[in-house]
Amino acid sequence: MARVLIIDDDEDFSALLSSMVKRAGHDALAVATIKEGVQALREPCEVVFLDIHLPDGSGLGILENIRETPSSPEIIIITGFDDRGAAELALKNGVWDYIRKPSSIKQMQLALLRALQYRKEKGYQSPGGPENGWYHRKESASRRMPQPCRQGGSRRCKRPHQW
Questions:
Q1: Are 27 and 116 in contact (CB under 8 A)?
Q2: Domain that holds residue 36
Q3: Is the pTM of this model over 0.70?
């Protein structure tokens, strides 16, 4: 079960999103301001749904704070404004997805599902569970990335080569 933080000042949208997260079998916590969001980030979470335009500032201003938390959650931007500059800035700062409101529940479910699956594949795990208060990335053996064939073949060249 994942913990999902929702930072959005639209109460109706937050309630809808919280309901969707809970129906998916996860814990949801909704807050309406950046200040409340920063306080809520003291507890580990796997995903943060973050609005850009909040009463006490821009959600983009806390992207780094979110990234620096021990649980390093995936961030999904949700906004009612069409701001291509903000979208580009958010994506350059490593957010998982950028969703414009209003959007379908399916779109939000899919973004959440993909973000959680990505975390699972990256190997994030909780040492002893969330009650310990922090998460870490499970160490794994490094994998060699496929390299282009040095003899002019493709990346999928089957011939043995000296690398």
A1: no
A2: 3-136
A3: yes
Whole-angstrom CA distances from 141 to 32, 33, 47, 123, 135 are: 41, 41, 26, 11, 19
Q: Which CATH number goes with the domain that contains 8?
A: 3.40.50.2300
Q: Which H or E element spans position 36?
A: helix 34-40
Terminal Cα-to-Cα distance of the chain (whole angstroms): 43
DSSP state of 112: H
CA distance linking residue 93 with residue 50, whole number of Å: 13
pLDDT in tens, 136-162: 443 333 333 344 444 444 444 444 444
Higher-pLDDT residue of 153 and 75 is: 75
